[in-house]
Amino acid sequence: MGLKIQLLFLMTLLIAPANFLAEPSPQSAPNIAVTAALSSDKVQRGRTVQATVVMDIPSGFHVNSNRPLGKFLIATQLKIDSPKAVRVSAVSYPRAVLRNFKFSKNRVSVYEGRATMRFNVTVPANFPSGTTELKVHLRYQSCNDEVCFPPQSRDVSLWLKVQ
């Protein structure tokens, strides 16, 4: 019995240093849900509907705002591709919060939790009836309080049912 305990003790001593020398697992970017919706599922020709794009940012992470304060930070950008005749307004971005993080000496302008961007879509009076697609391209950089991750791009589609 004593020999078994000694062998177990020696094996523990040999294995334990390997755990301490192992590199920590790399941090990975959060899974940010991005959804888009229209204020109405149908739009009359000559009318305007509001579109929203929502980012759900997990706790412990943030996304740089559309106007980051640091030159090295990448801004959140929302671009919309629409049919030529359809007019899309400028994007209204949410109000950012200013935070201090370990990776920056200065405060950083960020979005946390839920960030909602809005824009209006106007369909001309002579636009043909039917369904048409708006392609929404969102580019953002997420971070935690220590590091920023490479920028990511997400594409979503909005479908306008024109009457």
Task: Give a description of the structure.
With 163 residues, the chain is mostly beta strands. It has a single domain (28-155), classed as Immunoglobulin-like. Helices cover 12% and strands 41% of the residues. The chain has one helix spanning 2-21; strands at 33-38, 42-43, 48-56, 62-64, 77-81, 87-88, 97-99, 108-111, 114-122, 130-140, 142-143, 152-162. The strands form three sheets. Strands 1-3-9-6 form a four-stranded antiparallel beta sheet, with no helix packed on it. It has a four-stranded mixed beta sheet with strand order 2-12-10-5, with no helix packed on it. It is elongated. The model is unreliable at 16-25 (pLDDT under 50).
Distinctive features:
1 helix, 163 residues, Immunoglobulin-like
